Amino acid sequence: MATNKNALIRYKTIDKCLRDTSRLWTIDALIEACTEALTEYEGKDSVVSKRTVQLDIQNMRSDKIGYNAPIEVFDNKYYRYGEPDYSITKTEIPYEDIKRMREAVEFLKEFKDFSFFKHMSGIVHRLEDSLILSKAKLPIIHMDKNEDLRGLEYVDLLYQAIVQKQALAIGYKSFRAKQVQVMELHPQILKEYNNRWFLIAFYKTNLLTLALDRMESVNILPIPYVDKHIDANVYFKDIIGVTLSWGNPVEEVVFWVDKENANYVITKPFHHSQELIEEREDGVVFRIRVRHNYELERLILGFGASIEVLAPSRLRRNISALLQKATANYAKGNTKL
Q1: Which residues pair with 221 in a beta bridge?
Q2: CA-CA-CA-CA torsion sign (143, 144, 147, 149)
Q3: Three-state secondary-structure class, residue 314
Q4: Residues 50-86, buried b or exposed e (16+ Cβ, 10 A)?
C-alpha cells in the first residue's frame, strides 16, 4: 500500500482527535489512535512511531501539503487546534476548480494498472478522498490499453536505471530469435508507441530499440554507465514510431489521400512536419519529412486503397510490392483454413 495513503489516514486520524475536545491529547494518545486507525483500515498491526506522528504534525502545520493547521501545544504536553472550528477536511476551493480536479482524477485512474504510474496511486487516493468522488460512477474516459501486455513490470526499473544512470543486463528474445540473449546495456530513453513500451539503449557502439514485451529479465550491473546525452525530442524528430536507422536519410514523402479520408489525415497528421500541398477533386496531397522505417510503411498500408505514395520512388515500390503480395494472399483463397 502506498505510503501516501497511510500518511493520509494518519492525518485524518490526528484531525479527528484534535477536533474532539472532550479529552486531552498527548503524543502517546495520538500514536495509539493512529496505530488503531491503520490496523482498522489497512490491517497493519505495527505501532506507529513517535517520530512519524511528530513529522505528521509538522507537515500538517506547514503549507507543504496545504493544511496550515493551527496545531498548538499547551501545558508542554497536550495538543489541540488553536482555532476550535478548524479541520483539514474543510475546503475553500472554488466549485469550478473542484469540478476540474474531479475530471483530472477520473483521467488519472485510467492508469491505475500501469506500473509506471503506480507511484501516483497515493495522490489519486488522496484526491478521491478530498473531492468525495462517487465510487459507483461509471468512467466517461477510457484509455486504450493492452491488459495482457508483457514487460510492464520492467517500466519502473528501467526508468529508475535511466534516472540513476545505471548499466543493465537485459535478457532479450526477439521475435526471430530461438534463444534469449543477455546484453550489457546502458538505458537512455523510454518510449511508448501504439500501446507498447520500448527502451532506447546504448549497446557496444550502437543505439538499440528494444521492446519491453520481449524482455525476459532485467538486472542492474555494477559497471560504469555510459550516458549518450540523448534528447528524446531530437532523437524521434524525423521518424514515425520508434525505429530509427541513421542510414536512412530524411526525405520528403509525398502521398495522396482520397477525399473520404483526407479530413482524418488533416486532423490527425502522420507526422509533425505534415503539410497540405494540393487539393484535388478526388482527394488531397500531403508531404512529410521523415526517415524511412517500418512504422511508416505500416501506417501507409493501414489506409489500404485510400492512399497512394507519390514519392520517393523507393518507398512507392516497397508499398506496391507489399500490396501485390497481399493481393496474392487473397487470390489463393482460404487455403489456410
Answers
A1: 167
A2: negative
A3: helix
A4: eeebeebbebbeeeeeebebebeeeeeeebbbeeeeb
- How far apart are the C-alpha atoms of 214 and 175, rounded to whole Å? 8
pLDDT at 288: 97
- Give the length of the chain: 337
Q: Residue 268's pLDDT is what? A: 94
DSSP 191-230: EEETTEEEEEEEETTEEEEEEGGGEEEEEEESS-------
Q: Considering only CA atoms, which of 216, 205, 107 is closest in space to residue 151? A: 216
Q: Which residues contact 154 (CB under 8 A, 6 or more apart)?
A: 212, 215, 218
Give the pLDDT score at 91: 55
Taking CA atoms, 70 is separated from 28, 35, 63, in Å, by 20, 23, 11
CA distance 219 to 157: 9
C-alpha to C-alpha distance for 274 and 266, rounded to whole angstroms: 9
| Contact indicator for 225, 165 with CB cutoff of 8 Å | yes
| 190 three-class SS | strand
- Strands of the 307-311 sheet, one edge to the other: 275-280, 283-291, 250-258, 307-311
Which residues lie closer than 8 Å to 320 by C-beta, 6 or more apart? Answer: none
Q: What are phi and psi of 31, to 5 degrees?
A: -60, -45
- Sign of the CA dihedral running 330, 332, 333, 337: negative
The Cα 133–Cα 70 span in angstroms is 27
Whole-angstrom CA distances from 270 to 13, 62, 248, 293, 314 are 53, 49, 18, 13, 19
Mean pLDDT per 10-residue segment, the chain (337 residues): 72 94 95 92 83 94 84 94 88 60 62 53 56 52 65 86 94 89 95 90 94 94 95 94 91 97 95 96 97 96 96 96 92 69
Alpha-carbon gap, residue 115 to 119, rounded angstroms: 8
Identity at 166, one-letter amino acid code: Q
Do the beta carbons of residue 278 and residue 262 sit within 8 Å?
no
3-state helix, strand, coil in the chain (%, to 5): 40, 25, 35
